[in-house]
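#dry-run=false #mode=assembly
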Amino acid sequence: MSSDRETTRIVRSWLDDGVTQLPDRVLDAVLDQVPATPQRRVTWWPVRQARATNTTLAVALAGAAVIVVITLIGFGLLSEDRVGGPGADEATPSPTPRTTELPNGLVPLDPGRYTLRPGFPADVTFDVPDGWDACAFSEFEQGVCSPLEDAGGVGFLAVENVVVHPCDTRLIDPPAGRSIDAFLSAVANLSGFSVTEPVDVTRGDLTGQQVIVTAPTDPPCRLLTWSVPGRTNGVHAGEVNVVEVFDVGGRLVAIIGAYRPSVLSDEEIAEIRGIMESVEIRP
Amino acid sequence: MDTDLVTRAQRGDEEAFASLAVAVGDRLHAVAHRILRDLDLAEDATQQALLAIWRDLPQLRDPARFDAWSYRLLVRACYAEGRKERRWTPNLHLLSSDEAMQGDGSTTVIDRDQLERGFRRLSIEHRAVVVLHHYLDWPLERVADALGIPAGTARSRLHHAMRGLRAALDADARPPAREVAQ
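#status=ok
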């Protein structure tokens, strides 16, 4: 048996071998992209500085407000009969939330409301908080991931099938994606996984079912679960997946909130749940 | 690291950033390769990390902390690449015997092969702690600071990872099971 010291020596020696130079083409590729990559400007404001400038800020805001009021009066927009809202015969402009199409690949996102790219079997929109990445790999598998430690995310998957065994790439025959019941039954049979009883879930006009799937914490292999066209999903040991499945015109659509309780804080898990709660889905 | 270079790059000076990228590129790539154990993934991770450094530099409050901060972005890029590996296809690249022979002789071919397998079984989080601590020779407090995790978590990850690697080495040390004569 190796001693701790011996193991450390062997590991250090092993780590010493390997590449030490970044190929020029990689560096060139980075520098080529720099001019087209805008820098993210500072969005924080040091508390100390904010306190020191409270008075200045108040004066500046008051001045700005006066200018705005004078300008509005100048354009006749603040006359007395307008105070209290628009007249009865005026149409009230309703704010239209801006929705951005989710980019493909692993891309940092600005916070906001997003929609999936065309090709997904349902129209899906959802909110993304600050600091999240897109992790969309095909039209059938799109979503957002926490940039921290590959620890969680929310995925939208056109699921087709489930593996025969989590350690085996083979898929069930006939495919489990033919119905919600068949799919969830196959998920419930994933060896070593803990799966809750299905409960009904409604989003808009769609009614589906939800289960919570927890992967084993000490698996003997890399764990595989369900598949979309062209790919079979894998999960980490101990990963929790909140799986909602809907039948959209004969195709199964899954909304999956995945997180690793051992890595994420309660606040980060709440953020994942928040994204899931913001999801609107239509056929 | 030259903090003046960092400050200039923070203000959008592309030439300063190019000098910065040249200065740190090799080190970042070496760490990415050791975490991911795959040249292609490591190149992608380094590229993503360097672009993230450029993009987020204005948000770095203290230029003197550039080193730790840049490794945090690198490790995040490694997580993303590791996730890509998991989500797409397994991309195992086990060392061939020839590659394994090229070491300094202090580890045997069998050790290296066992370590490679044992290391690949670790999560990217655990690998990152091992590499920053044992390859860069950083104390655990600095590793924790760079990764944005508590020192206790870094210690626990290192312990878990080293136990796994030791088990991988010991697995090879066990005598092979004898065939039972029929």
